[in-house]
Amino acid sequence: MDGVQEEAIHHTALKLADEIKHLSIYKSFYSDVQKLVSSPNVEKENFKQTLQQAMKEKGLDTKLRNTVFHWVRTQSKHCRLDPLTSLSKASAQWEKRIHKSLNSMCTDLETSLAKVRLQSEQDILTEKWSELSTYNLDLSKYRPVYAPKDFLEVLLTLSGYVPFTRDDEPKWEFAHLPLKVNKIDQLRKLFPEWSSGEPLLGVNPYMPSTVPGFSTLEAERISLGERVVALGYAPVVQEYLKKGSPQCLRAKLWSNVLGSDIKAPQVQYFNRLKKNVLEVDLMVDKLIFKDVQLTASNDDQYFVFEDLLYQVMLCFSRDVEVMQLLKGNIGNPPVVTIKGKQTSPESLTAFPPSGIIPFHGFTMYATPFCYLYDDPVQLYYTFRAFYVRYWHRLHYISTHPQGIVSLCLLYERLLEANEPLLWVHFRNININPIRVVFKWLMRAFSGHLPPDQLLLLWDAILGYDCLEILPLLALAILSFRKENIFQVNTLQNVDAVLADLSTISVIPLLQLALMKP
Amino acid sequence: MNQEAKKITNNLYGRVNAPVVERCRVNFCTDLEKSVLMSNFERRGWNQVGPDDEWNFYWASTQTCRNLFSVESGYRMNDNQMINHFPNHYELSRKDLLVKNIKRYRKELEREGNPLAEKAEVALHGGQIVTRYVHLDFVPVTFVLPADYNMFVEEYRKSPQSTWIMKPCGKSQGTGIFLINKLSKLKKWSREAKTPFHPQLTKESYVISRYIDNPLLIGGKKFDLRLYVLVTSFRPLKAYLFQLGFCRFCTVKYDTSVTELDNMYVHLTNVSVQKHGGDYNNIHGGKMTVQNLKLYLEGTKGRAVTDKLFAAMQWLIVHSLKAVSSVMANDRHCFECYGYDIIIDNQLKPWLVEVNASPSLTSTTVNDRILKYKLIDNIISVVLPPDGVPDVRWNKLPNTEALGNFDLLIDEELLEKDEPSGSHSRGAKSKYK
Ligand SMILES: Nc1ncnc2c1ncn2[C@@H]1O[C@H](COP(=O)(O)OP(=O)(O)O)[C@@H](O)[C@H]1O
Ligand SMILES: [Mg+2]
């Protein structure tokens, strides 16, 4: 047994040693080590030990460990080939529908998917880059390609592909899908900090500390957090985030755990994305403008960040690395010619280069970061890392245990098992309970919860590195409001009961959901 | 812990907190039939009466209040009557008097040798060295025109490149305000204003203040804060700060160039100004909550500077109130809710712009309505004794539950007694001794 394990570790180490050479940090890291080797601190006689010591002192050790941490996290255990062909079929069809709809929108509006931007337009765009809200565009004819409810309709048809449906089960249940999800007892084990009722940030601002020398839990967490930031070791940061981050340290902690710190190459790359936005006019740009306008611009929590969001979302659409990082997870974007460019390899582009078509509310994946970063570049990379690690799973069809289908199923199972009366009530009034929470799940509650609560929720997503928290919170909110839900019997009225989440405290609710009665 | 969490969730999720409805007969009278007022009175089951009837609680205009207290009216209030203004609120709310009182307050402290009145030399933007109060430098340098014209010119010459803002003393909502960057412009204005610079003849006086030309910008836009402060007594001073203030944003990017000097959408944050702009959004009304401002500042600038800013704002409020406490007619029947206008500069220093005695109760958005409804609800529960019937013999020590979203800023009576903290107070206290 041990032998097998050792072999596996050896195998991984070889692979790592090989792949690390292709990572962007390799060159500078290697030259740093070389410099160190020639320093007097490293002795020839005692090479290994003195080098390791010197690397520790210079912080190279942490850098290497973090690199390994981030590399390991990208090596998904999940088999890329979807075992459920029905799902991959549905996913391909859905993708086709989206592209068809984009194409017909282009035809209707007599525009093209990609064209060279006129010089005059480029000049205006360049000038207005930092205040794109004043960039005049007629968007009245543009519509979001799809909204959460359209996507839900697609998901709801999935169960139809499964041949064996028992008669007494409603057709809409995700339970028909042969996917395994956790039960509440398993979740209790996954989130021990919540289920055991440990003192956590986000419960009560005046909660006293149990550690001598600190008046409040918050003061204690800040002090510990400052040491965690100074250490800068990603796995420790991740552990720390489970109990919630103070807002003043969050920006650093998040970029550390996601490996999204920025250096000169990242800034250069961001500027290249910007250049591409300025030079090439993609039809998605209009959709992005429209989405920011429909969401952030009208939201009292985010309107002040409107201009920042235009920049970030436009650049995101041009980011080929996103597509590369998500290969196999997000389908294949079509390649189109850029109208007005001389025929050459350069005149072709994936549409869009990132491969991601925004839906109505897509911007909401980025908005909360505005409370952490005012520099667009730093905001960009943390948002992008979050998207690549988590958010894409919420709007692509897959069997991944963190994918939207599994999350819907988890929600359904949790509701049925833990709130049976509510489950029956939904059945009696003939409402599919997923309908009342789907938009929360798909947007990871962004735009629904106030930002301070949302950030606590996202701390937990990073800390536990999982999205199952989303259906769990949906369940907790429903339990909390159940008396009001029992009073109503139309979808519209249930939605009204659940519309205002401004008074929700996320962490206490999650605790209540997991603590044994 | 389990219990603890439950208790907290229960508290947190009460929507607009609706305590047991007080069914006792309180007769109210109001000059203002705003829905945030009326719905609060209704929910409490109060009975509306006219100004000549036996009212217990009067939500009056400042004018009505002054009339009631005037000698000519001959009106005498009984112990079960309360009114929402102090008769000479203008000591705080008139732009010229506010500055006059603060200047006097500082001088007094200086004469006493109080360390609060410490002075030090500071460098202005232009590099000039001037002497300023270290702890009490929270209003922009201001002069009353025409009275202080010569003093203004002297100050102007110290840094001729700075911008000044002219505001009529008796107006509000941004009316009559303009910016000045040259003395010649002021002279031209005074000629055109016809009334020569003779104090006796001038109908309208103005204040001229140093323009804060380096405001903190978010998303490139200028904003100011509207904070609500409830005073239930000036001697001893008892004041409360409402947690739910908001920021009011300009709709146009901030721009200090001379060509934009007359563009009020760039410089004035009043909603009454901004709502006429083409970019005004009536869903959010350009308003962001103070809690979100704090979240943003903590996230992007850090905890220490954010805490310092918020402490400095409380400091500023307390001392502006202390500055007028000796001149206010401290009538037991009165309480007042002030709207503080504060600008934060890019060094995160707060500046007091003005104090309104009748802050707008018009709701521009849904959230605005919720906020103002809570404000009125909380004011009523702080100023009334626990049994819910106005009674000026009450000791004006509301318990913690009655505070709602108010935090105690200062209660000199409590400070004097030096009571152990926790029984009545919440928030900062001994800081302002
Ligand atoms: N000294 C100043 N520096 C910068 N801006 C100012 C200054 N004074 C006033 N303002 C701006 O003008 C607005 C209106 O001024 P204020 O004194 O509040 O008069 P009003 O009674 O008309 O509201 C303020 O809300 C603020 O945006
Ligand atoms: Mg004002």
Query: Could you give a short account of the major beta sheet of chain B?
Result: 8 strands, antiparallel
Tertiary shape of chain B:
globular
Parts with pLDDT < 50 across at least 5 consecutive residues of chain A: 161-165
Show the largest interface.
A-B, 44 and 38 residues
Largest beta-sheet details of chain A: 2 strands, antiparallel
Arithmetic mean pLDDT of chain B: 89
Based on helices, strands and strand pairing, what is the structural class of chain B?
alpha+beta
Poorly predicted tracts of residues of chain B: 1-22, 421-433
Order of helices and strands of chain A: HHHHHEHHHHHHHHEHHHEEHHHHHHHHH
Classify the helix fraction of chain A into a percent range. 55-70%
The number of distinct β-strands of chain B equals 18
Radius of gyration of chain B: 22 Å
Which kinds of small molecule does this entry bind, naming each only once? adenosine-5'-diphosphate, magnesium ion
List the quaternary state of the chains. Answer: heterodimer
The rounded Rg of chain A comes to 25 Å
Total of helices of chain A: 25
Count the DSSP helices of chain B. Answer: 14
